[in-house]
Amino acid sequence: PVQLLKPKEVPGRSGTSQRKPREPQIARSLIKEVFSYFVKMPVTREAFKIVEKCSEKYFKQLSSDLEAYTNHAGRKTVEMADVEMLMRRQGLVTDKMPLNVLIERHLPLEYRRLLIPVAVSGNKVIP
């Protein structure tokens, strides 16, 4: 008797993808650019990998803290007050060192303009 050949089934292959969803990550180029701006010297690849891991853990913790502050306040949107509270808890913002002074010291002018309202002629405040 002649048997018909059937195609072999590939195990584990279904219509849907078996990949785990990946968490969003900060671009390596951005981390490298920011880090090299402050370091101002060459960094080995091994050291940079550690910096990447540390920055990823830092932003995860930062995000969860901001989420906790926002939930505690009964809101669903993170506001500037939450960020300032977190920076106060970290000791970055104090009565002697307000948030605006930190922004002016550490951020370029284009970011300062976005974060700090500026009075211009005609009594208009930007942004």
How would you characterize this protein structure?
Strand 1 (118-120) and strand 2 (124-126) form a beta hairpin. This protein has 2 domains: 25-76, Orthogonal Bundle (Histone, subunit A), CATH 1.10.20; 79-117, Histone, subunit A. It has 127 residues and is mainly alpha-helical. Strands 1-2 form a two-stranded antiparallel sheet. The chain has helices spanning 28-39, 45-72, 80-89, 99-106, 109-115, and strands at residues 118-120, 124-126. InterPro entries: CENP-T, CENP-T/H4_C, Histone-fold. Residues 1-11 have a biased composition (Basic and acidic residues). Residues 1-24 are annotated as: Disordered.
Number of domains: 2
Mean pLDDT: 82
State the secondary-structure class.
mainly alpha
Question: In this structure, how is the largest beta sheet organized?
Answer: 2 strands, antiparallel
Distance from N terminus to C terminus (CA atoms, Å) equals: 84 Å
Going by CATH, the architecture of the largest domain would be: Orthogonal Bundle
Number of helices: 5
Detail the poorly predicted runs. none
- H/E series, N to C? HHHHHEE
- What general form does the structure show? elongated
What is the fourth-level CATH superfamily of the largest domain?
Histone, subunit A
Strand arrangement across the biggest beta sheet: 1-2
Task: Please tally the β strands and state the result.
Answer: 2
Helix content: 40-55%
Question: What's the alpha carbon Rg, rounded to whole Å?
Answer: 25 Å
CATH topology of the largest domain: Histone, subunit A
The proportion of strand residues reads under 5%
The CATH C-level class name of the largest domain: Mainly Alpha
Domain CENP-T/Histone H4 histone fold: 30-117
Biased composition (Basic and acidic residues): 1-11
Organism: Manacus vitellinus (golden-collared manakin)
GO biological process, one term: mitotic cell cycle
